[in-house]
Each structure stands twice: as structure tokens, then as C-alpha cells.
Amino acid sequence: MTFRLTATLKVGAAASALLLGLAAPAFADSAPAPAPAPAAVQAPQGVTVPPLGFTRRVLPNGLEVYTARDTAASNVTVQVWYKVGSKDDPAGRSGFAHLFEHLMFKSTKNLPPETFDRLTEDVGGSNNAFTADDTTAYFETVPANHLERMLFAEADRMGSLVVDEPTFVAERDVVKEEYRQRILANPYGRLFGLFVPETIYQDSPYRRPGIGSIEELEASSLDDVRRFHATYYRPDNAYLIVAGNFDQAQLDRWIDQYFTPLKNPTTPIPANHVVEPEPTAPRNVTYYAPNVPLPAAVIAWPTVKYADPDRAALTVLDGVLSTGESSRLYRSLVYDKQIAAQIGSTPDFAQQAGNLSALAIMAQGHTAEEGVAALNEEIAKLRDAPITAEELAEAKNELVANALRGRETVDDRATALGYSLINTGSAAAADQEVAQIQAVTIADVQRVARKYLTPQRQSTITYLAADDKNPASVQKMNVDAPVKVADLAPAGAPAVLLPEAERVRLPQPGPEVAPVTPAVADFRLDNGLRVLVAPTNGLPLVSARLSFKAGSSDDPAGKAGVAALTASLLTQGTTTKTAPEIATQIEQLGASVGASAGVDFSNVYANAPANAFPATVALMADLVKNPAFAGEELERQQAQTLDGLRVALSQPAAIAGMTVGRVIYGDAPYGAPGSGTPQTVPAITPADVAAFHAARYRPSDATLVFSGDITPAAARALAQQAFGDWRPTGAAPTDAADPAGQTLAPRIVVVNQPGAGQAAVVAALRGVSRTDADFFPLTLGNSLLGGGFSSRLNQEIRIKRGLSYGASSSLGARADAGVFTASTQTKNETADEVADLILAEIAKLGTETPTAADLAPRRATLIGGFGRSLETVDGLGTLVANLALYDLPMSDLADYAGRVRAVTPDQVQAAFAQHLPANRASLVIVGDGSKFLDALRAKHPNLEVIEAGALNLNTGALK
Length: 959
What we know:
Blueprint: E1 5-6, H1 13-19, E2 41-42, E3 48-49, E4 55-58, E5 64-69, E6 75-82, H2 96-103, E7 107-108, H3 115-119, E8 126-131, E9 136-143, H4 147-159, E10 161-162, H5 165-184, H6 189-200, H7 214-219, H8 222-232, E11 238-244, H9 248-259, E12 283-289, E13 296-302, H10 311-322, H11 328-336, E14 340-349, E15 354-362, H12 368-384, H13 389-405, H14 410-424, H15 428-439, H16 442-452, E16 459-465, E17 521-524, E18 530-535, E19 541-548, H17 562-569, H18 579-588, E20 592-597, E21 602-609, H19 613-625, H20 631-648, H21 652-665, H22 686-696, E22 702-708, H23 712-723, E23 748-752, E24 759-766, H24 775-786, H25 792-799, E25 807-810, E26 819-826, H26 831-847, H27 852-869, H28 873-885, H29 891-901, H30 905-915, E27 922-927, H31 933-939, E28 944-947
Parallel strand pairs: 1-8, 5-11, 12-16, 18-22, 23-27, 23-28
Antiparallel strand pairs: 2-3, 4-5, 6-9, 6-11, 7-10, 8-9, 13-15, 13-16, 14-15, 17-18, 19-21, 19-22, 20-21, 24-26, 24-27, 25-26
């Protein structure tokens, strides 16, 4: 869905899964001409990262324009990066830049409210924005023929934003819900969103949270909004970036037409250049928060700003420290000592300052103090002894391969440029980064460790569950800032939406540029393995997906989690390689390799630079054919799974998701949580996973998909070499005849979680299989209901009422009857109101025929999203693999748009009436029941209330 993002949670990707349960180019200064291309950069393993290839010009009003043409694309991205971020929030107005970002999607003098979604989603594109410390960036991706319309719209909101009091209040309420969702409902939201930045920084405005606080959001006013726009949203304070399929001369004329007339105010931009002082002593702080399932430890140091030469060495150091399972923190804290459930480190480099933090979410039974000691031990090793040549090469290979992946689409390339411009003021810096990474030496890594990661400069944070003795820590308020409200420019006369007859008309779209689906080669090896090849002409990247018709619905009775553990153990040892050796090889290749299990299917996946792909596939084959399933590795994975469940079961949305399965399917195979439960996971034995693998991982039941920079002939040779000798090791299993079980009566279930920061609200119905004749009518109807920012659910719940950060729905088709869900999170007090709104919108689709005008933009949304999936090797491979798994013809890839266009309004209404009538819907609400139970019980007297601590996911009864 199109939500307004904010860079508030400063936590690295290594922690995200658990927490979410949880030579330089030249640029011309005059008329654009192709910039001299920098020499292609070669990584140690031979990976070529192409230059971004943008040209530059500056308009008379100071707007810097960067453009890059790609005629192979069917889309174009338009991005405007403003040089204003949360560091510029005025004193007493923390979170204001982010709140303002939300308001920029409302009205202008020529565009009514929500027009940006009409111009993007409704034509098959997308839009979004984010607020970071130093920037607020707005970006749209649309079919190339809609480029002029987006340029017109971006110029119009730069010059004439319209905000009235009701709109301001409603959007401020949305941001409050975002705060509750990101900060209060997530058990570690307070730690990373509030406490870490306020502890690391002393004077820098970076110490304030980008999302602000409820109190300071309340303090903001409409006049503040208008003054903020007048101060910062001006041509000489922005970068315009356009990348994709366009005619350069025509693009230049459009930019001149729409942006050149914009004027800059005469008032200066407020000064905001704070020099963060050097720490004079270490800092040690303990914070407490409700519903924290596992203690956490963080150690952090101020480092350097983004443009500092030492950033490259610190980035490599971070790679050695925490990237991948061969990293030092993972090997020590998670794998060897088994004291942490998750580790991570974050090199956070911004325009004025930077920091590096290392974190550990502790395993059950281990303390935050143990985490601090273990983190300190690993940091001391970086200071005291050089890293190895192998570690240096692994870190560089990963960073360079990720840089290559980060340039796969026109959006990716524009975003890479935007970050470089904001943080350095130089477009050339984006292309210099790979060379800078490659130039880092072993001595450089030790030097920066000794210079910056010292005990004297260190902040140490422990984060624990609040209790009666230690109440929840509160957010630091009234933090001063360099910019004051009085420094903002005068608002001037407010802009208003002009009468329709006086508005400048939107430009008309140009001729359509249709996406092209590749021809898919299809053949089988002698052992029955089906191989599909979808070649592309993009970057030198290749993806492989090996899929099996084996999922959590095939778990033995009472052993929920077997499929998931089988998949996770594939990378944890083969008959010839240990888990650390596998992790090291993956990182040496600059590859991404892993496995996962869904409800119906399991997938082993790999992505690598083309020159490393043959070795990556050979490793992938070894993992699949020769897993060891060692007892000690199973114990490690069980412990990590149980810790992940502890975190998930502290979050309302995750609890609701697991509860829904039991409500819809009861004790049928689809009802059990795929991850297992706290009771089933410990009961799984090495024999269980070995038997599952022997029976279910068979070449005759598998499909191997290659996508990317590979030919069918090369793919055939590679598949034969890696998998040609593969033979099944066990008897073929008997599939579950009815994994969805019988249809059950609807239920209203409340899981009471006292102190929950928000309530999760889910309406759920037994749905359809992926091969059902009504799949496409239901898919289109679901898109209308909850498939985007402009969907009906989001309109009713977020846009009209400000009750949530966003609401969505999912068709949830499976091999057997799937589970349809419509869901959101809201403050506890409005849980019953939101439940009513969701049910009403579901009912409307089954009783009222949507109009052709309703469905036209939703068709475009689906077709546009499908087209964007084709742009990446992983996205393309996933589409092909899913067709194969459901035994659908490969021709459906090319036929997708036509199938969506063929659906009629009557078919949508009839499909919802037949398959998803609202009177058969169940409700699951997880939150602090003291704030909504009475109102909900008045409407649903037969509701069931289950205390969160008593929830039993092993049975359909749930208790």
C-alpha cells in the first residue's frame, strides 16, 4: 500500500526480521548533454557496477535538475528531494517535517485533494515519500506516457500547497496513529525510534525523533504548516530527478514550462549547522518499556558525516561486524555463545554527523548485561587486531554486489543519486562510492575502529521490560533545536483550490509504452526436474528459485513448524560443509541464498552477480541435495524460532495474524501457524526434518526458475551440472486431501493484551484457491477494497477519519481455499468503530455493483504493479515460479493484463456475494480490551475473550 514513510527507526536490516516478527562522471552546468562516462568499476570478484549516467542542469531559479534516459524501461520515475528534514523541525515542533510530508499529498491550487493518487495508482503507477534527518523526498513511478502530468503536479505542489484546518487535523491524527504503530505497538519501537538517538547525540538536532511526539504534534498549527512551506519548499532548496523512458528535448521543454516560473521567497533559509561535540565521557543508560519480550543491548559511538573520507572504512567495518551469518557478531553471539536471538549494527551517516551502533536482542534466559559484555568484546577485537584478508574481501564483495542490486530499476538509480546529492551536494559521489569501498585496506578498518569505537566515546544502552518497580521510560520532551518557529518565513496569503473553471488543466497522457514479458523456456531434466528460464537484458544479475509443493500444511500432526525448520536448516550444514563455511561462501560470492516455507510450498532462492552465479547454483544444489540436519543446528534454529515467537506474541498484529488461521480453519492443516508454536517447536526432532526433506524435496515435484542475465542454453547446462544427478531419497508422500478442512461458523475473538500500544483489527473469511474461476474478479474487487492508498478501506478509515496509518485487504488465495483478510491497526479506543467500517465495506462489494469508473483505476493498479515486478530479476522469477507451482500455463504471464481488463463490474459483485459475504466474516481484535470491550460486546454479545498469556495456538478452540 502507498503509505507515507519516515526514517524514524534507526535500526539496521539485521534486526528488522525479529523486530517486525519483526572514476567519477562529469556533469554539465548548462544545457544537458551526455556526461562523460566514468570507467566501469570492477569488484574483486569481477562484478561491474555501471555508472548512474545522469546529466545535470540548473534552472534560473536555482532548481537543480538531473535526468537519465533508459529506453528499455516502460516506466519513468519523477523524484523531488527537498533539502529539509527532521533536523529542521522547529523547537517545540518535533515531527513537523514528517507531518508536513503527509500534507504535501493533499491539494494545490489546481489539483483537488488526493489527486496524486489519481495520477499514479489509478494509471498503474505508485507514489510515496519519506522524511529523514536531512531530506524530505517525494517520488512517483508511472507509465512513461504520464511523465508530463507528474511534472505539472510536482511543480504545482512546490508552488501552491493548499491545506485547510480540517485536512490538517485529520492528517495529524493519521500521524499520531503512525506513532502508535511504529513506536508504541512495536516492543522495540521506543528503543530505536526514541531512546537510541537521544542517547547518542548531545547537541545535534538528530537527537530528536523524526516522528516527533503526540504532544508536540498537538502543538503544531495550520499557520506553522504554511510558514514551513514558504520557508523550505522552494526551487533553490530542491533537486528534481527524472529517470526512465523519455525524449530528452521534450522533457527539457516540460521542465522549463512548469518549473522555471516558480519563484524563491526573499527570506533566507534558517541556519542549521550544529557541530556535535566530542564526547567527554562514556554514557550508560537503562530504559524500560511495556511488553518487551526479550532484553536488548545497544552500544554506540558518534562517527562521521556522510561526506567524510572515513565513511568507506566504517562501512566495511560494519560489514565485517554484522552482515551475514559469517559476520563476527552473528558467529559469536548467535551461533557460538547462543546468547542473542538477533544481532545487528547500523552505520548511520547523515549530512552533519553520524554514528555507528551495535545491538543484540538477547535470547531467552540471557541478560542485557551479557549482551553488552559480548558486544564490547567483539569491538575490542576490531581495535586490537587487524581483520583478515578473507573478511575484507567478503565485506567488499557483499557491498559491491548490493550496490549492483541497488541499480536494477530506474527508481533505484534515481534514489541512489538523491541520497548522494542530499548528503554530499555532489552527484559524482554516488559513482565514487564503489571505488572508495574497494580502496579500503585492512589497516583502514583497524584505524577507524581505534579512532572512533573507543570506550571513552561510547554510549551503552540496556532496554528491559517495565514492571511495578521500573515503570516505562518516557520520551524526552522540550528538546531545543536550532530552528525556531519565529525563524520561519511569513505564510503570506494562503493558497486555495481554484474553481474548476479557473484551474490549469492537467496535460493529457502521451502514447502508451507497454511492458514486455519475456518468452519463458520450459524443459525437464531426466530426473523430472522442471526448469523454466526467463532471460532479461538488464544488469549482470541472475536469480534462481527452486520450488517444492511442500509447505506448512504438510507438517505432521502436532509438529507445526517442521516445514519451516526444514527450510531454515538447509543453510545450516551439508554433509561436506558446516554452517559457518556455507555462510562464508555465500558472502565471498556476494550472493544472497536462503530458503523458506509457506503454507503450500517451500522455496530455495539465490541471487548473485552473473559471474558468480554458477558457483552460487552449485552451492544451492549442495544445500538441497545433501543437508546434514545436525542435532546441534536444529537446537540453534529451535531456540531462534522460539525467541522470534516471543517477540511476535508481544505485538498485536502478529498475534492477530496467527489467531486468524485457527479462527478460519480450526484444527485443519491450514489452521496451524507455519512457524510452529511455543509448544510444537521444541518437540521437533532431527528425524522429523530429515523425513520431511526425504519425502517432500524431490526433483520430480520441483521447479527450478532462472531469471535475469542468462540464456536458456546456459541455464540448461547449469541445471544439468548442478541437479542432473539428483535422485529422491524417500518414498513419495500422500498429500493432504483437504488442508482447508470444513467451513466453520464465524467467530468474534478478542485477544486481550493489557498495555498494548494499539489494537489490531482483522476481518477474515474463508476464501478461494488460486485456480478458482473467480480468482481475477476477486483480485480486482480486492484491489478496489483494500489494494492501495486510494482503496475504499483506506479512504474510509485513514483519509476520511484519521483512525489509522493505513488499512488494506488481501485475497490470500492458496492451493486449497485461502483466507481473505481486511485489516488495520488503530488506537484501542476506536477498535470497535474500525471493525464496523471494515465489515461495511466488505458487505458493499457483495451487494452493490461497482461502476466501470470504480474499476478502471484498480485495473491499472494491478497491471502497473505486475509490470514493475517484471523489472527485477527476483520479481520476474517469482511470477514465473508461482505460475508453475499452481500448474498454470506460462502463457498467463503475457495474458495477465488481458485477464484483468476482461473482468466486468457484475462479475466482481457476484464473486464477492458468492465467496466473501460479510455475514460470514469473523473478527479478530488484539489490543487493550479495557478500552473497547464494552462497546464491542454491545454489538457482538457472543464474542470470545482470551487473555494474551492464555492464547493456545495449538487448537482451533484457542484456549
